[in-house]
Amino acid sequence: MISIFEGLDASLDRILAVALRVIRQLKRDRRTVGLITFIPIFLMVLFGYALSGDMSGICLGLVDEGGQEGLRGHIEGVDDFEILHLGSASDAEQLIEEGRLNGAIVLGPGQVVVMLDGSSPQIATSLINLVRAGLEGPMPLDLRYIYGYDLEMMDSVGPAVLGLVVFFFTFIVSAVSFLRERTQGSLEKFVASPLSRPEMVLGYLLGFSVFTVIQSVTTLVVVVFVFGVPMYGSPITALAVVLLLGAAALVMGAFFSNFAKTEFQVVQFIPLVILPQVVLTGVWWPLQSIPESIRPVSSILPLTYSSEALRAVMLKGASLCEIMPDIFALSLFFAIGFLAATLALKREVG
After folding, report:
1. Cα separation of 84 and 67, whole Å?
2. Is the model's pLDDT at 305 over the cut of 90?
3. 58-147: what fold?
């Protein structure tokens, strides 16, 4: 019996020795300590604040054909909507098709028509609730969906999730791969060669892009054919958006890899790089539901533009010309990321 207790004590001592060694290592790794201590607080504040906002900044067209004074006063009295007074229902429909309005309300004698963009179910529901809250007595409510009358929630979030998946895995693979190249000495060998640093970064990106293309095509096929998300626009245009987003993720991964010494430290960038984009770019809920004080942050995150472009192409049938502002923004992200990755590489191995 004594020998059994002695064996347990010895085993416990060995376990404690390992535990103390791990604690000492963590204490020396200030980045990990900061991750464990402060990042959860940052994320909880971010999620809690982003999810606490009401809908605001919704662009609503209002066509007054007479006879609904009470409802018109109710609509105009809501501060969360940006109201544009229009002369006809056809003007409202055209502006919704162009993406300049989130919806429109036509007030006519004895009837109210609500024109909706169903590609964002949350906004469509908000507009319907606005009208119903202001109706006085029984009144026919004619719901007309300019886009997506039969869309489900997966149809709405599917295009944005497609971009999120590609961005997430491309960023991680790129960062880890660049880290391995540096720790194994491959980058130093290239530096000693006639290759310039931009040529070196472009070469790596071209190699990684093969896997990005495969991943993008596979993910797009799954979203459309497995989950049934509609594809009203050109699949080539949608794929171009995804590939451009993947290119931006590649250069971001290459840039952030310069600030990591281990693969575990690469994983630590996920809360800082990926999760804010999940919350602030309209992937799961519209940008109008994000508090106005932090909404400007969305404009500097690439997933904001890929989500908007993919929804426009897949759910509305938008052409490449119609999403050109989003294409330009993603191209700008790539250019800035490429410059940052090249300069960081020069500082690291030059």
Report:
1. 19
2. yes
3. D-Maltodextrin-Binding Protein; domain 2 (3.40.190)
